[in-house]
Amino acid sequence: MKKTLISFFLSLPLMLSAQVSEFRPGIVAEGVNYVLPRTGVRADITVYKTTYTPGEFARYAERYMHLKGVPAETQTSYSINTINIYQYGEPDTLKYYTIKLKDKSIAPLAQLTPEGFLVAINTNVPVVSPQQPAPIETHHKLDAQRYFTSEILAASSTSKMAELVAQEIMDIRESKNSIRRGQIESMPKDGASLKILLDELDLQETALLQLFVGYTDTVSHTESCSVMPEADIDKAIFFRFSKKLGLLDDDDLAGEPYYISLRDQHTVPLPTEAEMKKRKINGIVYNMPSMANVLIFNAQSTIYDKDLPFPQFGTIDVLAPTLFGKEATTTVTLNPETGSLLKIGKGM
């Protein structure tokens, strides 16, 4: 939902009728057009891509550093960090309405979103969109060559260079142990200086050790998938995920399926066809959603299980025009995702 709002001053009392011509949200000659939403479910899935890059001396890790099982090939893996579930609204093509203008009346404020959803009358409300998390990048490669000694640089072979780097790492570790034991000349005079010295030695050791054990970088990205239900959903594939490939299309069998089920709880009594024919659309029309259980899961666990409102499973109701007469300044706020009534009160 975009944050930008469109406000219009209207005349009252309010008379509404179904919009037959092409829908144009906002103020028109006949009055003010608005639309009620139908509601879907959207998931923002944040995935971490982790890439391991082997060190230049990976094949010598066991010989000179006594490290076993160090990978010698680049490895990439994916993991799901977060799944944020929320609702969103889109215009319901069967629920276009017009607020008719009439002379000799007060001028209230009607607030619409850019999509044409009515969200407030005689008041102003913020409409905040869900924000996807910012991408994260962590890079851990260090410049090991800046710590090379002249002897390392003069080595005649990769094997010899790896041997000398390993010896340099051992020397650094010995120096750190000597400092901690207070066994070196010119010991730092204060704790802050000691920490700076040890931190620098740690950095040197880590940079040189990367030549054997490699390093790992992580990058995150967020993708969305959504569903707009028209009826109950029974274990439909919502998205697929692979630890080797990341997020995949729902028909890509290389990924593990994540399912969505949605079941109307019938919390709102629906009017009969005869009652609908007798109903007069004369006032502010709003949605009365029915609650539906939303279940998102995979083969191992349940990811999300919650009852949410869906107007396409419910009905509509009307606020009478008398609430907005010359002597009344009724305030109304509606939910932009569902079109339901949030609050009705008396203005100043």
Description:
This protein has helices spanning 61-65, 150-153, 158-181, 191-213, 273-278; strands at 6-9, 15-18, 26-28, 31-53, 75-100, 109-112, 118-121, 137-138, 215-227, 233-242, 246-248, 256-264, 284-297, 302-319, 330-334, 341-346. The chain is of the alpha+beta class and 348 residues long. Strands 2, 3, 4, 5, 8 and 9 form a six-stranded antiparallel β-sheet that branches. Strands 1-6-7-15-16 form a five-stranded antiparallel β-sheet, with no helix packed on it. A five-stranded antiparallel β-sheet has the order 11-10-12-13-14, with no helix packed on it. A hairpin with a 5-residue loop joins strand 6 (109-112) and strand 7. The model is unreliable at 1-22 and 103-107 (pLDDT under 50).
